[in-house]
Amino acid sequence: GGLLDRLKLDAKGIRLEKPIVHAVNGVSLSIAQGEIMALVGESGCGKSTVAKTIARIYEPTKGKIRIDGKDIANFGFAQMLPVRARMQMIFQDPYASLNPRQRVRDIVAEPLLEQTKIAQERAAVPEKIARLLARVGLNAEHAGRYPHQFSGGQRQRIGIARALSVTPGLIIADEPVSALDVSIQAQILNLMKDLRDEFGLAYLFISHDLSVVHHIADKVGVMYLGFMVENAPRDVLFARPRHPYTRALLSAAPSVKAKRDIEEIVLTGEVPSALDLPSGCCFRTRCPFAWKKCAQERPQLQDVGDGQSVACHLIDAPERDTR
Ligand code: SF4
Ligand code: MG
Predict the structure, then answer these.
(1) Ligand 1 centre from 298 Cα, in Å?
(2) Is 147 in the pocket of ligand 1 (CB under 6 A)?
């Protein structure tokens, strides 16, 4: 026991007071135990905001964040303490998130010590830390060193050991391999997958890199300008992307594209400001298919079968999909 049964984020209309550019609208997702869900999109699309809102680093003004069936959206500090043991974060830059003056053993032990005040349990911490370090590919000798004595990949292993220390159900990973060399990326991704299999962990995996997402995710949500525009099991999304934005992202990803022949949709124009959203479809200012209806009506996510949902008027007007 002790693992996550079900996490549900139904954060319809999350809008952060300040800065308001972090607005996320109508994003709804759920992650089951043992599942890896990726959120993809260009920088500024709101994927980190979703992650930080679930972790309660940002405050939602509306919506629900249900973990183990409990809505934690309005939990206070004391109520959040046990929740934080169920949900840990891993960051893009492990160096920035590790205290440079702390030894690795203290860094890894910190979330665990926050959770337990019982002397007997605290006495067992050093041995647990040694086991965790070994599990993520470090050794007992590393425990006494400082973060600057490690490579980027090793630092991410330290971050993972720290997250694992409290036996979480969900790990929220925000661009965890983006700062690493490609060869090291694969090692860290494989470690994360192995840990998922071993502990039944769920991940919310934030990335802008579609080849990374293809490697690790079971299902994928595509975000644009604070909206979820498409959501599907990985293989469905990569084989049959339906939203024009997803299709453009895939056609611009060489490693993914090489696997099959994907139509060319080249994005033009800039991402509009989240402060000044286009009327109707948020993507219409860059969409090659946009027509009048797209300016008048905001498309809602609709189920198109096989677990795939798409927010686009083309679903009801396939004759306009001319590519
Ligand atoms: Fe393009 Fe219209 Fe679909 Fe938006 S709703 S993605 S503008 S076709
Ligand atoms: Mg980000």
Answers:
(1) 9
(2) no
Ligand nearest to C-alpha 295? 1
Give the number of domains in the chain. 2
Read off the pTM. Answer: 0.89
Which residues sit opposite 220 in a β-bridge? 38, 232
Give the contacts of 277 (CB within 8 A, at least 6 positions apart): 225, 226
- Domain-embedded: residue 202: yes
| Cα(45) to centroid(ligand 2), Å | 8
* 192 and 293 part of one domain: no
248 and 191 share a domain? no
pLDDT tens, position by position, 248-279: 999 888 777 656 666 788 888 888 877 778 99
CA-closest residue to ligand 1 atom 3: 312
The pLDDT value given to residue 27: 81
